[in-house]
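Appendix B. One record, verbatim.
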Amino acid sequence: MTEDLSPAERYAAARIRAAEQATALAPFRELYDFELDPFQIEACKALEAGKGVLVAAPTGSGKTIVGEFAVHLALAERRKCFYTTPIKALSNQKYQDLVRRYGADKVGLLTGDNSVNADAPVIVMTTEVLRNMLYAGSQALRGLAYVVMDEVHYLSDRFRGAVWEEVIIHLPESVTLVSLSATVSNAEEFGDWLDTVRGDTEVIVSEHRPVPLWQHVLAGRKMYDLFEESDDGRGGRREVNPDLVRLARMENSSPFARGRGRGNMREADRERERRQRSRIWTPARPEVIERLDSAGLLPAITFIFSRAGCEAAVQQCLYAGLRLNDQDERELVREIVEERTASIPGEDLNVLGYYEWLEGLERGIAAHHAGMLPTFKEVVEELFVRGLVKAVFATETLALGINMPARSVVLEKLVKWNGEQHADITPGEYTQLTGRAGRRGIDVEGHAVVLWQRGMDPGALAGLAGTRTYPLRSSFKPSYNMAVNLVQQFGRHRSRELLETSFAQFQADKSVVGISKQVQRNEEGIQGYREGMTCHLGDFEEYARLRRELKDRETELAKQGATQRRAAAAASLEKLKPGDVIHVPTGKFAGLALVLDPGLPAGRANGHRGFDQHDGPRPLVLTAERQVKRLASIDFPVPVEALERMRIPKSFNARSPQSRRDLASALRTKAGHIAPERHRKQRAVAADDREIARLRAALRAHPCHGCDEREDHARWAERYHRLQRDTKQLERRIEGRTNTIARTFDRIYALLTELDYLRGDAATEHGKRLARLYGELDLLASECLREGVWEGLNPAELAACVSALVFEARQADDAVAPKVPSGAAKNALGEMVRIWGRLDALEEDFKINQAEGVGQREPDLGFAWAVFMWASGKGLDEVLREAEMPAGDFVRWCKQVIDVLGQIAAAAPSSAEGSTVTKNARKAVDAVLRGVVAYSSVG
């Protein structure tokens, strides 16, 4: 090809190649044995040019390459790079990856559990660790050039999302930010915000999946494609597979409905339909795995939205005799598992169900969920990536976590429990789950398989699979700890300004842009209408106001009159008795009628079921035309009186036409000649109203009253008033949405000032203590330290009390009081609940609303007994049996207790001040960090 170029073109191409070789990107590309994708190259070039980047790309597309380029640049410049991840497991995995590439001397790890080589130029950490560093003004921030925020879309997380925004806002301006996100539908909006708070930021969005994804539905033994490509001359469209639509229609039609009108249907056709219907069922879990294995679609992750379901699925596969590994693979699995679990004592292995777990692994089958011991989960991940586990049954947490791609992903159901109710999964969740299918460099294509369920709608499934709406929504809310840290660093006014730069406020402000434009258009219209109603005789706006006040007063009096008439009519109906002859004034059944039942509301007389007391009496009557009807208050706009009385025969049956005919005849004979009394129209209330008289006089005396164009002006004035009213409503909406974060901060600031944590632009000693306490119940923890609630507690008792600050039961159970340690610990826990009650009342006074994600929830004592036993040295078997909790949950809560104990040790008064809390908090950490809790901390 170069022979075809002119000498000048060859020279230009050589210069471009030379320029590219001189960049930092060229040697970086040589580290990989594959070509980088265009979006990766574009992002790396932007990074090298000194810009921040936001990379939004599908799961498995390789966006972490851009984060690794930031590491490469930092090392080349002899500066620092922090690589942050949302979860410890992901931090551990990234740490191992970077150590393999750059060596253990250049890479460190900080996760709260672990501190490895903390002075290294590259440190992998959880996002919370970086947030804490920023507030503490850590020396480790010196020389920091790059921060990579992996999985930055976590800022939508309801509980932890605020941390991401805190980091982005508070990072020094000199730091270049690399934000890596899943595909979100508002990446440009997020990029605009980053541009505002971080400076020049390039937004790179890639919708391209490096491994194509095929969507299927498994019904019975047959796998159907979800989509059928149709080439209709418009470039080809994806239509829902007509076979699936037919299946759904066939399942929904009942045998009765199918048989009707088909007498001529041939027996052969009926037999074919019966055979087709017999093919529609939801295959069992072992059947699904066997079907995928025979189609060459393993390894597979099956998402089951239940931990118990995951464990049951493994057992079902074992009972079915499934074996996905050969003998060599089985031996290799056992070797790896025994090596990774060598430090766990034998008695603990029995408690943890090790041997059943190992049997599944040897067969290539495993579960993966948060209730598992972290070590067990890590082994499953390692074996799956190495191809030694081929079928994993997982909860949706796996989709948000570590890098564990598969050839296929199976979704059992499209409904999951969201903590409050069973809800359909969203298009964003579907994309996140199925994004695991297809391993780059291994698979030619990935496969997403949805199991057929009764009542499935293929069209709705196609909508889930074809929609790419996954908007990033800020969950940012100020907290007590955040407020104290901000005020002591920046002062109140600057803190308020910083909070107004949050993504939450950016989105709220952006949402009012359209409303603001409407207000501007309305104001232009208002000006035009004002000109249209201008009168040469006087102030027509004042005249229009008098007309409006007169109309409003007349309307108000008319309503009062109507209410009084309805009340009088209802009162007259209540006086009716069976046998009264009345005249129904209006309605379909107007005319002479005999009251059979007065139909009084329950509690007034014999009652009538079927109507509400507020409807008033509903008399049952026989009309002169022989109809028996239940009337309503609407049939009586005026009061009614009995014209005559009649005896109703005891033998009268309202359902008998003969009975009705006889009684109606008697009614006409008895009262047919009586003319109903005409209801005299009462004098209108408005006629005697002084305010109306005053307004009418003012109107007649106004100069504009004599204008020839008065009614034209009035029409413009009415439009002017209506538009002005609408505009004020829009302005109230704008006011409600703007400055929302700052207003919440003001309320928090006021409460903290009341409690003497803040004074003006400074934090008090109590405030400085609160600044070191992170977590949902930061203020409660600080108040407990302040009041000496934990003084004198031994380490196990202190651990029990601290557990109430972190633990939250998965399902609230108010019926049974949780078991707690007796003695000093019980008293301290009771005092914690009392202090929380006081804070809760104070938050209500300051309008701090827990429903909005701000404030202190009630401490949960459900883990106190379990952690007390563990810290007291009890065995794992006994503790788990008492706690009725999976090992993974137990370890996770223990780690959170350890984390808060560490914070309390740092924040509590010193022993020189006579406090025992610091010393006992450190001892409590050692007491809890043992056995399964200690050896599950991977570094």
